[in-house]
Amino acid sequence: MLEVTATELAAQRFLHGMRPGQLDTLAEAAAEVVFPAGHRIFDEGDSANHFWLIESGYVVLDVQVPGEGPAIIGRVGIGELLGWSWLLPPYQWTLGAVCVTEVRAFEFNALTIRERCAADPALRDELTQRLFQVLTGRLLGTKSKLVSRSMP
């Protein structure tokens, strides 16, 4: 794992426009990681101890369907956030994630970020607002897929 700088984080779409001090705080809890294609980053129900910003490659999100196995419900790629279950109790993944290609990402220690957010409400509010934007976009994407599947 490699050390991450605030300058590198400032270039990430999810973090674009954050204050330099906030980026410094995030950089202190970040490392650069590489996952091989086929690597399962997390499973539904696992503890959510990290989250990632994807630099290259992509990941599919899946849910376990009883009697059928995993069903792919989404895709996360370059410039996108992977994981939000780390923010709220019980801090467990509600989905699974597996790398389709080799993935290079910034990995954040969720416990450290939660502690920093508790100490800095402005950072907490900034990250929460950005996470809600991601969630809204993913829900709209899921809705669109469901509607297009139900049309003749």
Describe this structure in words.
Helices cover about 35% and strands about 30% of the residues. It contains four helices and nine strands, in the order βααββββββββαα. It has helices at about 5-10, 20-30, 110-120, 120-150; strands at about 1-5, 30-35, 40, 50-55, 60-65, 70-75, 80, 95-100, 105-110. Strand 5 and strand 6 form a beta hairpin. It has a single domain (about 1-150), classed as Jelly Rolls (Sandwich). The model has no long low-confidence stretch (mean pLDDT about 90). The strands form two sheets. Strands 1-2-9-4-7 form a five-stranded antiparallel sheet. Strands 3-8-5-6 form a four-stranded antiparallel sheet, with no helix packed on it. With about 150 residues, the protein is α+β, with helices and mostly antiparallel strands. The protein is globular, with a radius of gyration of 16 Å. Helix 3 packs across helix 4 (about 120-150).
